[in-house]
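STRUCTURE REQUEST FORM
Protein name: Peptidase S53 domain-containing protein
Source organism: Catenulispora subtropica
Requested output: C-alpha cells
Priority: standard
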Amino acid sequence: MAARPPHRSALAAVGAAAAAALICLSQSSVSAAAPVSALRPDPRPVAPPAAHHLAMRTNHVRLDEVDADRTAGPDDPDTTYKGPRLCSDSFGEKPARNVPDAFGGRNPLSVCGYTPEQLRFAYGVTQAHERGAGVTVAIVDAYASPTMLADANRYAMNHDERLLTPDHYREVTPPSYNHLTDGFCETPAAWAVEEALDVEAVHAMAPQADIVYVAAASCDDTDLMAALQTVIDQHLATIVSDSWGGVPHSVYGDADPATMAAYSALFRRGAQEDISFLFASGDCGAADPRVECAAGSARPQTEYPAQDPWVTAVGGTSLAIGPFDDYVGEVGWGDRRSVLAPADGGWTPAAGAGQWKYGGGGGTSEDVPQPDYQAGVVPAALSTSLMTGARARQPMRVVPDVALAADPMTGFMVGVTEKQQNGRVRYGESSIGGTSLATPLFAGLMADAQQGAGHPFGFLNPALYGKAMSGVFNDVTPASLGEAAPRPGSPPATVVDLGEDAAGRHQARLYQLGDDGLLATRPGYDDVTGLGSPSLSYLRSWR
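Status: completed
Returned output:
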C-alpha cells in the first residue's frame, strides 16, 4: 500500500501566491452590449460594474435536445428511449445512409448512449476489479428529484446493474427551496435531470460505493455554499462531484470577489479534511461571446469554480468505444453542426464550416495565479496567454486538469422521470453528455482508486500532476481517435438521423467532432483535456 501523503505537502503545492490571495478577481469594465471588439482598451472613463452573485448553471447537454425543432424518439408508449430514430450501440457501428457524404466519405450514426458496462471497461474499471466498496461519494446540485432512487433502480434493472439500496443511497435536503419561480435558476425539473445524470454516472463507475445526494436550496452561491459546508461539517463523503458553474465575468458584472474567496476557503478546508472536490469545466469551450452557448459572457474565459486552485477541473472528450467495449480512442470535445437541406440534398453550412455548438470548457484563467502543481507541466506559452489575446504578467491557472467522456454524440444513457413532449410525466432514457457527465464518471473512478489504496486522497491535483509523465493518462490529440477515424487526415464526424418530420421531410444533422473553438488539443498537457483521460493503468497507479 502506498504511503499516505501528508496534508502539508498537498496544500503547499497550490503555491503561496494562490493560497494567500485565494481568488483575486479583476474588476475591469464591461459594457452590457459589448461586442468582441470591445475587448480592446476603451479610452472613455467607465464605472466598473457592480459585483454580483453567480447563478450557477448545470453543465449537461442532451442528445434529444440538440435539435429541439424535431420531436425525438418513437411515440410507442412501451418504449422509454428518447433520441434519434437511428443510432449506434458502439462508435462507428452503423453507417449513416440516405444522407450526403462528408469529409471524403460516409460517416457513422451517433451513439445511442453508452451503458455503464461499456464505460467501465473502456476506462479500466472492469480490469482493475475495484468497485468503490467502502467509499462515499457526495453529489451537490440544486433542488432534489422526488423519484431519484426509483429512477436509478429502474435504470439499473434495465441495464443489468446493481441496485442502489437505501443502505447505499441517501439524501440530505434543506427545509425549503428558493428561486423556484423567479427565473433566477434553471427549473427544478432541469436540475432533476442533472441529479439523475450525476447519481447514475457515479454508480456506473463505482457500483459498490455509497452515494449521498446533498441538495442546495437553489442555484445561488449562498445556497450552494451551504450545501458544500454541510458536506464538510458532517464529513459526509471523501469525494464530492459538482456539475455546475458560471462565468465570473458576465455582461451583468463581475462575480463578487468575497464570494469567490469564500468558496475557495471551503475547498481548502475540505482538502484539510481529506475531501476531494471535483468540478465540471463547462460545456461552452472558452465561453466566447461570439458563440450561441456563451450568451452573457463578457469575454472568453474559464468557468468558476472549475478554475479555483483547490478543486480538480474535469474537461470533456468524444469517446470511441468499440464493439467489445474496448477503448478505441478519444478526441477533445468540441462539435460543429451542419443541417441537412432537403431542397438540394446537401449539408448547410458545408462540412467543415458548420456552426460551433458546444465543447469542453477550459483555457487560461485571468483570475487565478498558477498553482505550484502546474509548474513544469503546463506549457509556459499556455499559462501566460490569456484567452482575450493578452499576455499575463505571470503564469496563471489553466483548466482543465483531466478529461473524460462528455460529447452528447458519444454520451451516456441516463434514465429519469420527467414531463415528456406529449405532456405526460413518465420515465424515459436518453443520451446525455457534457462535463456534467465527465465529472461524476471521474468521481466514481476515484472512488474505485480510493478502495484500492485503502485511504482517501484529499486534494487530488498535486498527485495527478505528479503522474503527468507516468503513462497513466491517454494523451488526447487531434489524431488520437486512431483506427476509429473513418479517413485518416479528415476530422471525425457523426450523423444524428431524426427520420422524417410531420411534413415528410428528412431531418438529419452532421456533427464534426474534435473542434473546441479557441481551445485546442495537442501532445502533452492542453487546455481541452488537461493531462488527458484515465488509461487502463490509471487505477493501478493509486495502489
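Reviewer notes: Confidence is low (pLDDT under 50) at residues 1-9, 16-50, 67-78. Residues 285 and 361 are 4 Å apart (CA to CA).
Form closed.
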